[in-house]
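Hi everyone, sorry if this is the wrong subforum. Our group has a chain we'd like a structural model of before ordering constructs, and none of us has done structure prediction before. Sequence below.
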Amino acid sequence: MPNVTFSSPQMKKDLTVYAVAGDTKTLLAVAKANKVPVAFECENGECGSCQVEVSLLSNYRKIGTALTEKEKTVLRLSGKITAQQIADAETNDIPPPWRLACQMILRDEDVLVKF
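Answer:
Right subforum, don't worry. Here is the predicted structure as tokens:
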């Protein structure tokens, strides 16, 4: 079961919540369920308003998660990830630091989410 720590200047303090790994809930769904004020508009990966920076909080190797085509396009066009980071995610299972909260499915790893 992963711990997800949300951190933002919009919050009085960081909040760590427990999420069920592999239940196919998105990071945005976990944030909404715990009343974390992650910005969002469309919830389908097209607007890019839910961009978050995700970093690993454990000593284990990062677990790559597939980027959706929408996520690749929105994050690349906004300058958050490069073509090389997309290639690394697809071929070497190395996740990029920026994700769309509405597209990212949580894995069994503790993460810090900054927004």
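For your construct planning: The first strand starts at residue 3 and ends at 7. Residues 41 and 49 are 6 Å apart (CA to CA).
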